[in-house]
Amino acid sequence: MSSKQMTQRNEASRCESKRFFTPEQANSALPLVRRIAADIVAQYQQLEHLQKRRQKLLNQEGSDDLRALDAIAGQSAKRLNDLIEEIKLIGCELKDWTLGLVDFPAILDGREVYLCWKLGEEQVSHWHEVHAGAMGRQPVGETFTD
Q1: Strand 126-129 and strand 111-118: pairing?
Q2: Over the stretch 109-131, which tens digit does the pLDDT of each residue have?
Q3: Looking at the 3D structure of the chain, how many domains does it have?
C-alpha cells in the first residue's frame, strides 16, 4: 500500500469515529455547550487569578498560605479539565478558553470544516476551514444544506 493510500485510510478512519454536525444539530447542542463554555471561561479566569495570587505569595513569607492556594488551584485546574472533557464528549472542540470559542466539526462539499460559535452569540451562524481558524469565519448562510 502506498503512503498516499495509507494517509487516506487513516483520514477515513479518523472521520468515521468523529462526530460531524449540521448547523441545525450544532444549534440543538448549543444550550448545553453554552453552559459548559460559560463555566470554562469562568473557571479559567479563576485559575488565572489564583496563579497571580500564588506569584505574589512566592515573594512573601507564609508557606501555609501557599500550600492552601496550591490545593485550591489544583481543584480549579481539575474542574477546568473536566469541563473541557464534557465539550469533547459532545463532539466539539474548545478553541479559546478566554472567549469560549467552540468549533463543531462539519462536512462541506466532501471536506471537513468547522462550524464556529463564540460565547455570547445566539446561534451557530459561522463556519471556517480547518486550518483557517476563527479569523477565517464566514457566515453559514446558504452554504450548508441538510
Answers
A1: antiparallel
A2: 999 999 999 999 999 999 999 99
A3: 1
